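Example with several molecule types.
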Amino acid sequence: MNSLSERGTKMKITSINLKNAFKVILLPVFVYILFFVCSGGNFGKPSSIIMNLKQTLTPTLISYAMCCNMLCDRMDLSAGAVVMLSAMFGAKMVYLYGIGLVPFVLLVVGAGIVLGTVSGIMYMLLKVPAIVTALGVCMVYETLSNLASISWVTAVSGEITTLGRFPWCLVIFAVMFVLFYIIFNHTKFGYHVRACASSQQIAKSAGVDTKKTAFLCYVVSALFLGVAALLKISIQGSIDTPMYMSSTNIIFNCMLGIYVGLALEPYCNLLIGIFVGNFILNMLTTGLLSMGLSASLQDTASGVFLLIIMIFTYNNQRVLDFINSRKQRRELAEAHQ
Amino acid sequence: MKKAVALLLAFSMVFALFGCGNTDTASGTAGTDTAGAAEGSAEDPAAADETTSEVWSDQAGAGEVCGDENGKYTIGVVIHTTTDFLCAKYKEYSDYLGKAYGVRFNYYIIENFADETYLSAIENLCAQGVDAIITTNFSGTAVLQGLKTCEQNGVYLGVGWSQIDESIRDQVFASEYFVGSSYEADFDAGYEIITSLIDAGCTNIAAIGYEPGITCHDRRWEGMMQAFEDHPEVQKAGEYRGLEFTKAVEDFLAADDTIDGIAITLLGIEYCSEPIKSAGREGQVKIAFCDLSENCQGSLDSGETVCAIGGQYVDIVFPFVLLYNALEGNPMEKVEVPVNFIVCKSGEEFANYMKYLHDDGVYAWTTDEIDQLIVSKNSEASSETLLEMGANYSIEDTIARHGE
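Resulting structure tokens for the full complex:
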């Protein structure tokens, strides 16, 4: 009797998981079909999807880096500048000294860790809102990027970009994904982050060292930003010199990825949701390009489209509840008759 | 303890970055025999190398100086960098001219192209007591504001790499402190990069440009669009104007696998090569662009690049001559000098460009030739000659004047 009940429960869980997986997959599939139809078949060829996948890796890592801080209501606007300055530092070393791949990797990731940690230290020391500290740090890092840059763009090529090619970029991403999964879901730090995300005050009352957690958020973020910088310059082969706070452009898209991830959280792990979110955003850009939209219109269309997705994702349960309640009322009415 | 270690790491990182720009300082400062370097730079390659290393030695942002350290005049140059292929040569040329004519050049590096940045640079240079200023890529109505600052401080202004806007041209030319300007044939360059791709057999071309606001890039973009209009048989895969060029290339390649050409208003190889390789489209997508770089030789040889346009470092000569004559009390007639671009469509053309125009110690016009434009040395000197120089500027013209 017990085994039957357990089996039933397992089947129920499996069924729920399958339904959730279906819901998560539904979103990118919907976007794919929409653009495939709208672009008259131009969009969505296998090579395009592979390219989209590759383009998703760096933003997803940046999203993971920003995720812990964002959940705790800290907006780290310096993340983009950290990525650009770390990548620029590595590229400049290649340009000046012709360093090999291994020192390049160590320098870029190391620079990311140092710069990201410095952002955290500044936040801890200055005791001003995170967004204010981040803006200041972002400006300083952008200026340093300008000083370190060679031109509008600092480029690398050849062996140095090996990690940007398949399968290496996927391997690096997979390792970082697993690492973040463990950190976020299976460590004391991860539990503390989620406790702080719910309420800093309650977490503090429950014995969570919120200051230490905040600093660790920046340290973890720094590691992921360093690896993101490595992937970015390896895949793109160049890094632009940031100006007019252009480094923040990078993170706004990544933030959207996090929001989509949060919207999908009821159906899947947050990490998977963030990846799907970033993948959808990249499909959006290429999809709109396939339809021949100019760059300025693309931004508008992206914003509108994203709003639609968010409205749909956040409200679909309410819509389902509304349909179900109507159905129940109708059934009750029929039963009374 | 942890904080101390983190701070230490941060400081080491910051100092390392500042150190990046100064790797050749030792060799640079060792070669400060300025007069000797100036005399020998055109003929003696060793002296030329010394000059180059000296020019490249001070790359750490604002406050870079070259030319004659004890020169009787100081000219401030507002520019976005002095370390890339184009601007390093620009600075090297100014160093060569400065040493020959007793002019000290004070480079003011700006980090963006906002009007306020230019105006602040002009104010700061005036406060430093420069005698004249050359602003590069300075355009729009802000020129009038900059000129007002110059007038208040008695500083002459020359504009390079940018055409004065027609709407303010009369007001600008009316100022006694404006000496003239020079600009490149940017519209034609934009047109040329599209037609070169078409000639190379491209039928579906993506157009990428710097975000609107910088005159030279705006003109290049207009030229590109005109070429698309004149060649309706060619499909425009899409347009992008912004600052994320590499991502734009990636997006275009992901969106359309029939794209066979990319036209970009700046640094094509740096922005396009890796994304093309990354998309597995190597050999299938050709590129054409403005702004030459050290990577052009290989890319033109391989056929990846079908057209690379540049050579605008010579622009320095025109505002320099106009300013120098004004400072000497012999102002020339104010002119806007249109300067040709150098168009390279093959590895051989680029090799010639390097050999006769860009390599260390070679310049489009030597000081002997420029002497003819200095009124105190040649009373017949006139702005007409500057216009002719700009119109004749080419590899062939340089070979004809300097020999093989």
